[in-house]
């Protein structure tokens, strides 16, 4: 049996749940800066890889996304992991459009190439998320901003 007071209290409770479930505010400048850094490092790594150090072709996009996602997470006031993941997604979009190099080159066969793209994109998103999380976990400013 529900009393009259319970019916009124449920309305306040439901509004509080609704507010808690909203998406975090996105700092698009931080994400754009992170993607730009990731793409620049990826392109620089690809150039160095063509001169005779192929490991840079694999490591540069991963390092670039890590660096860009970390900086985006630091610039964001709230939800640094979310911002890091969006930097990873932005790099994957730049990779798909041909602007940024991917960490893996083409493979033999369509199925193997599809799997390689899927795994590398998943790894890039994971690196972006992890770097964003690290940005939120490490507070060097001492301002204790709410995250």
What would your notes on this structure say?
This protein has 147 residues and is an all-alpha fold. The protein has five helices and no strands. It is globular.
Classify the beta-strand content into a percent band: under 5%
| Total strands | 0
How many DSSP helices? 5
Low-confidence parts, pLDDT < 50 over ≥5 residues? Answer: none
Helical residue percent? over 70%
Q: Kindly name the structural category.
A: mainly alpha
Radius of gyration: 20 Å
Residue-averaged pLDDT: 81
Distance between the termini: 40 Å
From the spread of the alpha carbons, the general shape counts as: globular
Topology order in helix (H) and strand (E) letters:
HHHHH
List the helices and strands and how they pair.
Layout: H1 4-20, H2 28-50, H3 55-75, H4 80-96, H5 110-137
Helix pairs in contact: 2-3, 2-4, 3-4, 3-5, 4-5
């Amino acid at each position: 049996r529900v009393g009259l007071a319970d019916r009124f209290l449920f309305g306040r409770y439901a509004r509080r749940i609704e507010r808690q479930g909203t998406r975090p505010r996105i700092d698009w400048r931080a994400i754009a800066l992170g993607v730009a850094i990731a793409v620049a490092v990826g392109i620089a790594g690809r150039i160095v890889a063509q001169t005779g150090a192929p490991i840079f072709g694999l490591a540069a996009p991963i390092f670039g996304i890590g660096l860009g996602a970390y900086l985006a997470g630091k610039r964001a006031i709230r939800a640094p992991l979310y911002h890091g993941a969006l930097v990873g997604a932005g790099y994957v979009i730049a990779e798909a459009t041909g602007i940024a190099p991917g960490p893996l080159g083409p493979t033999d066969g369509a199925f193997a190439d599809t799997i390689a793209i899927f795994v590398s994109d998943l790894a890039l998103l994971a690196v972006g998320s992890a770097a964003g999380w690290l940005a939120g976990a490490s507070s060097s400013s001492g301002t204790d901003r709410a995250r």
